[in-house]
Design brief:
about 60% helix, 10 helices, mainly alpha, 2 strands
């Protein structure tokens, strides 16, 4: 069945090709249009014209042609032979080009100076750039963005390292505290069971707590008042000594100018009652004073 279908397709295709050939659409051969080769011509007049242009006697400053051999090799003290240069050796080949250009420069520079042709670029010379200002601005912005991204990544790395170090220190502190607690509990158990009669662990704990208290007290003394307290002291002044302000001194003890005997001994007007008895103390009792305080609240 497959062979029959292939034969039918081939027959159909052959019939179609025959019809196309009959209509003149096909040309004999492989149906490939071959273009004619261009005829070679000997343009003698054009060649002579080019030769005349080459032969014009122009000034050297207009031609700037220098034909020289390579410069003398300072190591070998002889001109390098072009035949001795290995074309497969990159270093020798590039050195021969370099010495050829060096010899041309050594020959051309004095001639240019003699003709008063400037060979150095002035300091205030600004050459036109190949790229536009917009393109350079984009490149500058891209470089700036890249630098900022690198700085952000460096800061993130430093923060991660600091967090890692802080976690490590915190873990070490917790482990040390757990170890100290475990050692103290073991010592207490040994003491309770009578395996040990030493109470050194209590002394160690007391000394450590005292050391912590001393350290905190020294920190407080070194720290001093905070900024808010210093500002208030500067604005309102120091209020003076509060504790012990009512204590007697030598001067206040000897000063009796404000002493009033009548008031002190209850001898003032209206103080004595009938019968010459002294006035009783009218201070309310403790319960009454407590009730008065409660009312005031």
């Amino acid at each position: 069945s497959d062979s029959a279908s292939d034969s039918e397709d081939s027959s159909l295709s052959d019939s179609e090709l025959q019809e196309a050939f009959a209509r003149g659409e096909l040309k004999p051969g492989l149906n490939v249009v071959l273009e004619e080769r261009a005829k070679r011509r000997n343009d003698a007049e054009g060649l002579k014209q080019c030769l005349a242009e080459f032969g014009k006697e122009l000034a050297w400053v207009e031609r700037l042609d220098v034909t020289l051999g390579p410069v003398v090799d300072p190591v070998a003290q002889s001109a390098s032979n072009t035949d001795a240069v290995d074309p497969e050796n990159d270093f020798q080949r590039e050195m021969s080009f370099y010495r050829q250009a060096q010899s041309a420069v050594l020959e051309a520079l004095p001639r240019l100076r003699k003709l008063q042709v400037p060979t150095r670029r002035p300091d205030d010379y600004f050459a036109e750039m190949a790229k536009s200002d917009q393109q350079m601005q984009k490149i500058r912005q891209k470089l700036k963005t890249k630098q900022e991204a690198m700085e952000r990544s460096e800061k993130a790395k430093q923060l991660r390292a600091m967090r890692k170090y802080g976690k490590k220190v915190q873990t070490e502190i917790l482990q040390r505290r757990q170890k100290e607690k475990k050692n103290m509990l073991n010592a207490v158990k040994k003491y309770q069971k009578g395996l040990s009669d030493k109470l050194d662990f209590l002394d160690d704990e007391q000394t450590s707590s005292q050391g912590n208290k001393k350290g905190s007290a020294s920190q407080r003394t070194k720290k001093g008042p905070n900024a808010k307290r210093r500002y208030k002291n500067q604005k309102f002044g120091f209020g003076g000594k509060k504790k012990g302000s009512k204590w007697n001194t030598k001067e206040s003890f000897n000063d009796v100018s404000s002493f009033q005997s009548k008031v002190a001994h209850n001898k003032g007007p209206g103080k004595a009652r009938k019968g010459g008895k002294k006035a009783l103390n009218k201070r309310p009792g403790k319960r009454a004073r407590q009730k008065m305080k409660n009312r005031a609240r």
